[in-house]
Write a structure and sequence with these properties.
single chain, 373 residues, mainly alpha, 17 helices, membrane
């Protein structure tokens, strides 16, 4: 195979300092016109692997990723409208960021750039994707016809026309662009590697380990949730508290998990999920010696998306489970709060506690004593 590295000058900016690596006008804007010619270049060389490699390496890697995201948006839109199933992006959620970060790493290897940092990013992203893919699979997410229950709520509220527009703008396009955008800090880090070389910095070690810790938190949160619902399903079938899981009858009657990590956060998995991509963004900031850079928009949008998604999830949970509002008062949505209180503690709310006190008072008068549950 011929040396493809000469194409590097056409694909990457000649950055001279670390802050320049995060300069949108120098590292992104000049290469956006490549997006217009990319489809034609691929089509013209579709049967020539060597020529395709040259197209791949001579195109800015950020532009290649963006082009793939736009192409996929069209595919997802068509499939979702044919099937009237709006969980197509949900099925790709754990896969696409892995593809994008692996793409940056592959590009760096082919271009002869320093790759130790890129290999670390790809490795932790693969672990993130494997965990999320496995958890989505075991919940039945990849079964034919499966769809997130929240989309039915949105469909009933919006109606056919509004739902189609929502699908075009948000579900198919915006979400695909977001999954590409949250990996753009990797592009900044790729550019930084041209200056710092192949030696890992303190920030490389810190943020790669931090992202790994967040993935571990997600894993434990998911497993605790899985165990709880397995115990709850068994309890519903037998009316007996399963001994293998360690939950009490009161916890299972509640209907939602409030133990383990869930005793400190109402959504520990969501909190860690957002932290993974905020950490990647911060990694790019520290390496490029910038307090804020253009990748902030993607990280912030990811947080906004989870705020909206969590709000709808909790709205439905509060309607389904009587004690959920008490849970909301006692435990923080994502992060633990100073006033965090266990759901096993006595109630202080007016309605629940008032009824409990009234019941206890009558029991004392009738028996002269109280009995522990």
């Amino acid at each position: 195979m011929p040396d493809l590295r000469p194409a590097l000058s056409a694909a990457l900016p000649a950055v001279k300092s670390l802050p320049e690596c995060a300069d949108f006008t120098k590292t992104v804007t000049p290469y956006l016109p490549q997006l217009y010619d990319l489809p034609q270049n691929i089509f013209n060389n579709i049967n020539n692997l060597e020529a395709l490699q040259h197209v791949y390496l001579s195109t800015n890697p950020l532009v290649t990723g963006l082009g793939f995201a736009l192409f996929l948006s069209v595919v997802v839109l068509i499939v979702s409208e044919i099937n009237k199933n709006y969980s197509q992006v949900d099925r790709l959620w754990s896969i696409l960021p892995v593809i994008y970060n692996s793409h940056y790493t592959l590009w760096a290897h082919l271009a002869g750039l320093p790759t130790q940092r890129m290999d670390h990013i790809m490795a932790v992203t693969i672990l993130w994707g494997a965990r999320l893919t496995f958890n989505y699979w075991r919940k039945g997410g990849y079964q034919i016809g499966s769809e997130d229950y929240r989309w039915n709520i949105v469909k009933d509220y919006a109606g056919p026309t509004a739902m189609f527009l929502f699908n075009v703008v948000f579900i198919s396009l915006a979400q695909n662009i977001l999954l590409f955008a949250v990996t753009t800090p990797t592009y900044v880090l790729l550019l930084c590697s041209r200056i710092t070389g192949n030696e890992l910095t303190t920030w490389d070690s810190l943020f790669s380990k931090l992202m790994f810790v967040f993935v571990l938190i997600e894993f434990f949160a998911d497993q605790q949730q899985w165990n709880y619902h397995a115990a709850k399903n068994e309890y519903k079938k037998t009316a007996k508290v399963p001994k293998d899981y360690g939950y009490t009858r009161e916890q299972l009657d509640r209907g939602f998990n409030t133990s383990g990590l869930w005793a400190w956060s109402r959504h520990p998995n969501f909190a860690a999920e957002q932290s993974v991509w905020v950490a990647l963004y911060q990694w790019a900031c520290w390496e490029s010696e910038t307090y804020v850079n253009w990748c902030f928009a993607a990280a912030f949008s990811y947080l906004v998306l989870f705020q909206g998604s969590t709000w709808l999830t909790e709205l439905l949970s509060a309607q389904k489970y009587p004690d959920y509002k008490i849970y909301q008062q006692r435990v923080g949505r994502f992060l633990p709060k100073a006033s965090t209180q266990s759901m096993e503690a006595p109630r202080d709310d007016a309605k629940g506690n008032g009824k409990a006190k009234e019941h206890t008072s009558k029991a004392v008068k009738a028996t002269g004593s109280t009995k522990r549950r």
